[in-house]
Amino acid sequence: MLSIKNLHMKYGNNEVLKGIDLNVKSGEKIIIMGTSGSGKSTLLRCINHLEKASDGEMIFDGRHISLNNWKKDDIQYIRLNTSMVFQNYNLFAHKTALENITEGLIHVRNKSKKEAIEIAEAYLEKTGMLEWKNSYPSMMSGGQQQRVGIARALALKPKIIMFDEPTSALDPELVGDVLNVMRQVAEDGITMLVVTHEVAFAKDVADRIAILDKGVILEIGSPDEILKNPKNEKTQRFFSMLNY
Ligand code: ADP
Ligand code: MG
Q1: Atom 7 in ligand 1: which residue has the minimum CA distance?
Q2: Whose CA is nearest to atom 11 of ligand 1?
Q3: Residue 73 burial by CB count (10 A; 0-12/13-18/19+): exposed, middle or buried?
Q4: Tens digits of per-residue pLDDT, 47-91?
Q5: Which domains does the chain have, with CATH numbers?
Q6: With a 6 A CB cut-off, is 37 part of the ligand 1 pocket?
Q7: How distant, in Å, are the alpha carbons of 35, 75, 101, 129, 167 from that of 181?
Q8: 215 in the Ramachandran plot: left (φ > 0), alpha (ψ -120 to 50) or beta?
Q9: pTM for this entry
């Protein structure tokens, strides 16, 4: 459903993605790991047009997109069919949990207010956050805010959902609830690209794990291949740093 070819990204003279090729099947869960600065966030951001790549092509759901030359309707299409969960939740501080979700449904998806509220409540229920629907982000823990972030992303019914280190900013005791919600999302069959260093989660959920290093995919394969028998010495070193 998503095929990326030869993706390059430069910030000034600094080339941070150096020719990424990645094919993602419909319903597939791909976990992306790699050291800090290896280009994981940039990769996700080039896919959903938060950044414009310097070069590369993408076929998304049959639509051919030049990653360095986005057309207006490509941008619109990606906006309608992808969503992202961020490390720092990115909730609107002055909106309640419910309003954080209805906002996009009303303004991006053109839903009526009534319908938007129904959808938002259903997804808050799904992430265990319905009781908090009238609360503001400052009243919630990081884990609760992230569960609202996930509800918001799901409510847009994307064809692919991307997570960028969704649990990295959380206190350790809050990580489990968020990962459980993500496991549930995975069971629903949606296509997922997840940047995370939660190895146990990756082992359970990933169809494939991709290891990114200095802007290239060092290796990609099943959790067994990557976690048990990493071929690349840098991958081995990476996992020993994670104490895995
Ligand atoms: P990761 O998510 O793997 O930690 P990033 O994709 O955030 O890595 O960053 C990859 C590289 O790109 C890093 O060297 C980072 O400093 C650089 N970079 C990221 N965003 C910007 C930006 N907006 N401007 C300039 N350089 C950036
Ligand atoms: Mg990052």
Answers
A1: 41
A2: 37
A3: exposed
A4: 999 999 999 999 999 999 999 999 999 999 999 999 999 999 999
A5: 2-241 (3.40.50.300)
A6: yes
A7: 25, 29, 17, 11, 12
A8: left
A9: 0.96
Ramachandran angles phi, psi of 230, nearest 5°: -60, 135
Residue type, 228: K
Give the span between the Cα atoms of 114 and 102, in whole angstroms: 9
To test ligand 1's pocket by mutation, which of 18, 41, 47, 213 has the most ligand atoms within 8 angstroms of CB? 41
Structure tokens at 139: 């009243």
Q: Which of 122, 108, 87, 109 is nearest to 133 (CA)?
A: 122
